[in-house]
Amino acid sequence: MALLGAIEAGGTKFVVAVADVEQPEIVLARASFKTQEPAKTIKDVQNWFDQYDDIVAIGIAAFGPIDVNHASQTYGYVLDTPKPGWSHYNFLGAMAAWLDVPYYWTTDVNGAGWGEFVSGAAKAVHNAVYLTVGTGVGAGIIVNDQLLAGMGHPEAGHIFVRQHPQDTYAGYCVFHGNQCLEGVASGPAIEQRWGISAKELPDDHLAWEIEADYLAQAVVDYTMTLRPEKVIFGGGVPHRAVLLPLIREKFAEKMAHYLPTPAVEDYIVGVEHGDNAGVIGTFYLAKSLL
Amino acid sequence: MALLGAIEAGGTKFVVAVADVEQPEIVLARASFKTQEPAKTIKDVQNWFDQYDDIVAIGIAAFGPIDVNHASQTYGYVLDTPKPGWSHYNFLGAMAAWLDVPYYWTTDVNGAGWGEFVSGAAKAVHNAVYLTVGTGVGAGIIVNDQLLAGMGHPEAGHIFVRQHPQDTYAGYCVFHGNQCLEGVASGPAIEQRWGISAKELPDDHLAWEIEADYLAQAVVDYTMTLRPEKVIFGGGVPHRAVLLPLIREKFAEKMAHYLPTPAVEDYIVGVEHGDNAGVIGTFYLAKSLL
């Protein structure tokens, strides 16, 4: 049986998986490894795949920023990152030296966004934004049935937001402080602002009102710029059930009926594939190379 | 000689023009009419074109919001607008009833953006943002050599911006007050904030520092979301020579080297076609139908 491989390379863990080329929806086997320094981590990945001798294509969906520009000298490299050892690491080169198959090289959010687009929450539309809110904030953007990529992949977690009047937090982003979405709305930002884990914050805490305000601003900005048919929230923070309804409410207030959008319950939604979105999307991207 | 027609439908004036199908760069004839109520204005347009009997396609680049969704019942209509008589006007229907040729129907900013993309400031790239700052603020966005259109055309002048610390102005946008870019950075916003015309404000006035701050925020947001290779400023306000260098300076500060972009002098630029960008782009869009 010809197999597809998927690598979801996250900042804290790597997930590897295989699927039948004919059934990218079904995860045949899956494992995960702690993200360590590159040589060690990549060795774990390769050792795991070595048990299969019929892999025909591999998708890699990696934490950013990464170089996805085919014309670049450093295509396939990880760019500047605070993760020890990973800056300027030739990820794709290390994989290609080990196994000569076609590789689809993209971001983790593009992998998950593509999974939701092909067969999840956005399967019926042509234009969508997948926004993940966890350790960081990132977006996979689909325009006219294609992943958006200009000079590089989107970094739409770093758009600027208006400070909430009750928020005095200085921000978590080392580049933009509290000016950008990631700086005020990522998991670490929530925890640092309130001094306790996001999980421990009760539903009626001001934290969620502030979080929803920032995320709703982002949905307004993406709506005005991209006119998507669906905005999908993934990542750890939106697991919190109180959040999505609050984002919808604030989005409607902030849009003030300026543009027609689908009913907010259909427009701003959660993931359908859960934790498998990234792996499934990455299988499909790998398959697109064949 | 087979001719292309172009209609640039603005809120204050309509521009009409014709070009040889083989040379869309050269405006053979051009006229303009004051924008009045629809029946009168469209009659002026049609009377002008009636002097030519070999028009083979017409492009219409209209003030928004307009319905550009081919699947919609109201495709070709103007949507809700404060301009008297124009809300829900079937612009395209009125034209098609007069002359049976193919019509390209898009926004004024898409027309001008396309002109700069095909043969102006963005001719060498595949991804660009054309931002016009005048009576309103609007964008034409090119992704992978195509005009971006999701559920409709972008309304990227209505993204939210962080209030400048020295700006206490309540904002001009009837939907978003001082929350959105158009509300604080359009020509009328500048004039209402300072009580004098933008033209009369001296170069060293705080007005330009504030204006550049807001426009630089917008360029950051578009950069993070769309990763364009070029951002082009058109419209009346950026004619002011002091503005573009200030926007570049503030853009660099705000990005804080988070992402690689071209050198700011090559990245954030003015139009090359001047007042003809809209007409030339609209000729090319009309020609694409043949």
Automatic annotation (TrEMBL), chains A, B:
One Pfam family in the UniProt entry: ROK
PROSITE patterns found in the cross-reference section: ROK (PS01125)
One example GO MF annotation: metal ion binding
Reaction(s) catalysed (UniProt annotation): D-fructose + ATP = D-fructose 6-phosphate + ADP + H(+)
InterPro entries attached to this UniProt entry: ATPase_NBD, Carb_Metab_Reg_Kinase/Isom, ROK, ROK_cs
The keyword Flavoprotein is annotated on this UniProt entry: no
EC number: 2.7.1.4
This protein's record includes keyword Kinase: yes
Family: Belongs to the ROK (NagC/XylR) family.
Protein's name according to its UniProt entry: Fructokinase
Species annotation: Weissella soli
Species classification: Bacteria, Bacillati, Bacillota, Bacilli, Lactobacillales
